[in-house]
Amino acid sequence: MADYKAPLRDMRFVLNEVFEVSKLWAELPALAEVVDADTASAILEEAGKVTAGSIAPLNRSGDEEGCSWDNGAVKTPAGFPEAYQTYAEGGWVGVGGSPEFGGMGMPKVIGAQVEEMVNSANLSFGLYPMLTAGACLSILNHASEELKAQYLPNMYAGVWAGSMCLTEPHAGTDLGIIRTKAEPQADGSYKISGTKIFITGGEHDLTENIIHLVLAKLPDAPAGPKGISLFIVPKVMVNADGSLGENNALGCGSIEHKMGIKASATCVMNFDGAIGYLVGEVNKGLNAMFTMMNYERLGVGIQGLALGERSYQSAIEYARERIQSRAPTGPVAKDKAADPIIVHPDVRRMLLTMKALNEGGRAFSSYVAMQLDTAKYSEDKATAKRADELVALLTPVAKAFLTDMALETTVHGQQIFGGHGFIREWGQEQLVRDCRITQIYEGTNGIQSLDLMGRKIVGSGGSFYKHLADEIKVFVASADANLDEFTKPLAAAVQNLDELTAWVLDRAKGNPNEIGAASVEYLHVFGYTAYAYMWALMARAALGKEGQDEFYASKLGTARFYFARLLPRIHSLSASVKAGSESLYLLDAAQF
Ligand SMILES: Cc1cc2nc3c(=O)[nH]c(=O)nc-3n(C[C@H](O)[C@H](O)[C@H](O)COP(=O)(O)OP(=O)(O)OC[C@H]3O[C@@H](n4cnc5c(N)ncnc54)[C@H](O)[C@@H]3O)c2cc1C
Q1: pTM of the full predicted structure?
Q2: Which atom number of ligand 1 is nearest to the Cα of residue 264?
Q3: Integer Cα distance of 403 and 552 in angstroms
Q4: C-alpha dihedral over 130, 133, 137, 139, to 10 degrees?
Q5: Is 442 a catalytic site residue?
Q6: Are 319 and 355 contacting, i.e. CB atoms less than 8 angstroms apart?
């Protein structure tokens, strides 16, 4: 496997040339104070060094060794505790955290690129700080001032970690039926009892304390999602002076043996009357969780992108070196027994598909991150509201499309290695195995598609979608004629999506099954169209500069490949959407 190198050139291109992000930062006072293009560049460069130098080398050994459980204690693979300490001491856990509590206060668009690097280096490792940052976000937005002061500084500093405890054996997608109980105590705290499963980083040896965010129900809570509350439940109790006290009444019953991310501890957590503290209001726990989920879901999409990038870096190196057969048009490497496989059309198809989907995904995730920053920091209410609605619309697309594309890209990366792609020592098979979970956790991709179509498209009567469609139409209308080769197919793709959206909105009125029947393919049409917008923006930023630097020539070539070979996928997907739900219900359950 090639050594990981952070794609800093492309990251800077996206930030500075495609989105001119410093202009956005200058308009948002809270960000103008902490970041400019130079600071961002220095941060990304440093993140590139730490992820490539300290974390990537543990990826394969972590996969081989995995985590182990012994009588409630969980050991992470060799090197993980030391690497975590290095990462935490660099301030990376709190990169997007509030400066009031010791975080670095960086915009999400920078945090997103740091996340890409750490996850490319080692997804299992990246999950520990990611869960901590997600827990911090819920605490920051919903907990009392006292709880924030008590927990956030040590969490941002990476001295304590966080976990998210939602799932139970009988309740994954449908959290409304969880059974974990929270009994109010006279002192205002709660006693939490129940079993949570699949808890990432529920127990480990990286930090002295783990702060669990737990969903539970009060005894008199209404049934369903409206009866769920959120609690901070520390592994080790925290005294008033901030020192650590006794162990809380909770423990890790076992860890799972998994297909991938083997160095990430996936824990069964038992809460036996553990002391917890309410975050936000009673019965509003899911709302508090959603704050975190928009960030986490984008983060999971970025995990997919990260794996695709790592796979591409190895695949391109291999395709240049591996010699096999002659080019169809005649020998290229005449001094060798055969040509490098990069000459073959099918290998080029796979490499370019990987490159186009990775770079499209990097631009798209940065675009969504910029909307998150605008929603959070804009002082203009209408601007913040529009950005917030775009975030709501695009988050399920970012989570599901980036990870679905990541499975395609990592499989291509494996395929380019031929039989060696199937052999562990080359590393490509690990990326495929690690990738699969990104389509499942944090809400399966099927559920993301339902969220897009049901809540965001139908639920807003198409108004959230209109923000994006209008923005693309303004871009197309104002673009120079020399961009026609990109803007014309983009305009046609948006028109197709407009029609498809109207079609689904109409059909959903008559038959509730239509939404679920259309949703996955619809999300893919949406994703390819959104990437077409990204590729047109990237082409605009590169056009005219191709003589200066190969980077721009490569960008334009990849843009042309995207429009010629990948965007047309929307036609077959749209036809599937329009086939409706009828054919899904021709068999009764016994006929399967
Ligand atoms: C490695 C790993 C790490 C995880 N980390 C965490 C964590 O840190 N914290 C945490 O709380 N959880 C975590 N999870 C749990 C994860 O989020 C859930 O597994 C996931 O949300 C799916 O829930 P489920 O497994 O119960 O599947 P189910 O909900 O039983 O779903 C089964 C299938 O049915 C489909 N389905 C369900 N309902 C519908 C519907 N209404 N319409 C259409 N299709 C539907 C699903 O899409 C899926 O394909 C983790 C899981 C794993 C494997």
Answers
A1: 0.97
A2: 1
A3: 26
A4: 120
A5: yes
A6: no
